[in-house]
């Protein structure tokens, strides 16, 4: 995928809120080393740095475009441009934080214990992932992919939801954790503008499909999805679009 920081940050306020909610649920302690996995454009990494100014903070991000934006937003952070799926640090971290990134990686049954192994004893793994993949915003992307001349090019992208339920992650992390807190929140996001749910997904999940297509076919796919999603999320009397969005959170402290 080629990430567009400007498109992603169109709804920066709504995207930032769960990141801050996760950050605020991390207990007060003094981490010396922190990794922000999927640090994106650096707006959250900057807040991590502000909360723990004495820590060495590393932003890990697979998109060159996002790393460039992150270095501008948080120049006092160490930036590592590498694929999260192959992240293999030399040492453990006191805090591994990841906001809206790990759902892009497969095999969570192996991934999450592996990440916990990279947390120092007594340290914390803090993760937030979207769990909105059965909502119309995302289901309609798959329906559009399977209903058009582009099907053969994009149908391989129509996959089951990448994030499991809370109990799945509890069962994975509890044996390694001294304390574990897992919860879900559904945010009722009030969006403005023309077809804002399409614009929202264009900054994330829809990008996977648009990157595969080119020219008129790409334009036609986006338009076909846009018609579907606009009907699913009509404007209210005030001209606003209500977009419920569910997210899964976890804060796990590794056994000492």
From TrEMBL:
It comes from the Bacteria. GO terms for molecular function: methyltransferase activity. GO terms for biological process: methylation. Residues 34-123 form the Methyltransferase domain. It holds the Pfam family Methyltransf_25. InterPro entries: Methyltransf_25, SAM-dependent_MTases_sf, Trans_acon_MeTrfase_C. The keyword ATP-binding does not apply. Keywords: Methyltransferase, Transferase. SUPFAM superfamilies: S-adenosyl-L-methionine-dependent methyltransferases (SSF53335). PANTHER family: TRANS-ACONITATE 2-METHYLTRANSFERASE (PTHR43861:SF1), TRANS-ACONITATE 2-METHYLTRANSFERASE-RELATED (PTHR43861). This is Methyltransferase domain-containing protein. It comes from Bradyrhizobium diversitatis.
């Amino acid at each position: 995928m080629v990430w567009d920081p400007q498109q992603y940050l169109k709804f920066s306020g709504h995207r930032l809120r769960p990141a801050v909610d996760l950050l605020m649920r991390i207990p007060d302690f003094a981490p010396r080393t922190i990794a922000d996995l999927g640090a994106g454009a650096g707006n959250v990494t900057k807040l991590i740095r502000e909360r723990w100014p004495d820590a060495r903070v590393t932003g890990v991000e697979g998109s060159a475009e996002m790393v460039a934006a992150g270095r501008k937003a948080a120049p006092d952070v160490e930036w590592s441009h590498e694929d999260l799926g192959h992240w293999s640090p030399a040492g453990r971290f006191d805090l591994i934080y990841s906001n809206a990134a790990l759902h892009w990686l497969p095999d969570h049954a192996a991934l999450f214990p592996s990440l916990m192994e990279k947390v120092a004893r007594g340290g914390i793994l803090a993760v937030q992932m979207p769990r909105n993949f059965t909502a119309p915003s995302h289901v309609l992307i798959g329906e559009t992919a399977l209903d058009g001349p582009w099907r053969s090019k994009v149908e391989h992208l129509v996959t089951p939801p990448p994030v499991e339920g809370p109990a799945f992650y509890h069962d994975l992390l509890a044996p390694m954790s001294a304390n574990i807190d897992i919860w879900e929140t559904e945010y009722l996001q009030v969006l403005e503008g023309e077809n804002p749910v399409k614009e929202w997904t264009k900054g994330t999940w829809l990008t996977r499909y648009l990157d595969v297509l080119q020219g008129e076919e790409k334009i036609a796919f986006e338009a076909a999805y846009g018609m579907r999603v606009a009907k699913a999320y009509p404007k209210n009397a005030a001209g606003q679009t209500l977009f419920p969005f569910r997210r899964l959170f976890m804060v796990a402290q590794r056994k000492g």
